[in-house]
Design goal:
The structure is a single chain. The protein has 192 residues and is mostly helical. Helices cover 65% and strands 4% of the residues. The protein has nine helices and two strands, in the order ααααααββααα. It has a two-stranded antiparallel sheet with strand order 1-2. Helix 2 packs parallel to helix 9, helix 6 runs antiparallel to helix 7 and helix 6 crosses helix 9. It is globular and about 45 Å long.
Length: 192
C-alpha cells in the first residue's frame, strides 16, 4: 500500500527538535504546530489536523504502536474528563502566557536574555550552545527558548504517557486538541 505524503509528518517533529538543538531560532517553526490546527478548526469545522496531519500524534503512534514502546494499557478515565482536559488547557495557556510575558520583559529591557530550556516548566537546563549572539533582537531569541521549552516539555509528557498507556494518550488531553474541539463545537452550534 502506497503511503500518502502526510503519513511522514512524524519526521517533522524530529526535525524540529534537531534544528532547535543546534540553533534555537528554529523554535519559531513550532508556531506552525500552534496555528495550523486552529486554522483547520476555524475554516473546516473539524479536527482534521489532529486526526491526519499532526506530526506529534504520528510520532507517538509510530514509536508506541509500530516500534512497540507503549504499555498499550487503557487510558485512565480522568485523563479524558472535561475537568482534566480544560484544566490542563488553562495550565498550558498560563505557561504560554508566562513565556510571552518573559519575552516582553526582555523586549522592554526589564530582563536579560536567559539561554536556558525549562523542562516541565521548572527544571532549567543551560542551552547556550544553540545561540550565538547576532543582530537578532534578544526578545526574538527569548521567545525561541521559551517556545522550544514548551514544545519539548509537551512532547516528553506525550512520550511518558505513551509508555504508560496507549500510544496516542497525549492526544486525549492535548491543549491544541482541546482548543480545536472547542472551536468545532462553537462552529457547530452557530450552524444549527
Amino acid at each position: 500500500m502506497h503511503k500518502k505524503w502526510y503519513e511522514y509528518l512524524w519526521l517533522w517533529t524530529i526535525l524540529y527538535f534537531i534544528l532547535g538543538f543546534f540553533n534555537i531560532l528554529f523554535a519559531w517553526l513550532g508556531m506552525i504546530d500552534f496555528c495550523v490546527p486552529l486554522v483547520f478548526a476555524l475554516f473546516n469545522g473539524n479536527k482534521g489536523f489532529c486526526n491526519r496531519y499532526c506530526g506529534r500524534g504520528q510520532l507517538l503512534r509510530k514509536v508506541g504502536a509500530e516500534w512497540k514502546c507503549s504499555g498499550n494499557r487503557g487510558t485512565p478515565g480522568w485523563m479524558s474528563s472535561k475537568w482534566f482536559r480544560y484544566g490542563f488547557l488553562v495550565f498550558f495557556l498560563a505557561m504560554f502566557g508566562n513565556m510571552v510575558f518573559q519575552t516582553w520583559l526582555v523586549a522592554a529591557g526589564a530582563a536579560s536574555l536567559r539561554e536556558v530550556i525549562k523542562l516541565f516548566w521548572t527544571i532549567r537546563i543551560p542551552w547556550d550552545w544553540a545561540y550565538l549572539a547576532s543582530a537578532i533582537p534578544d526578545w526574538v531569541v527569548q521567545f525561541s527558548f521559551g517556545f522550544y521549552s514548551l514544545m519539548l516539555t509537551s512532547t516528553l509528557i506525550g512520550l511518558i504517557v505513551m509508555i504508560l498507556y496507549k500510544p496516542r494518550t497525549w492526544c486525549v488531553f492535548c491543549p491544541m486538541g482541546t482548543m480545536t474541539q472547542w472551536i468545532c463545537k462553537i462552529r457547530h452550534r452557530k450552524q444549527i
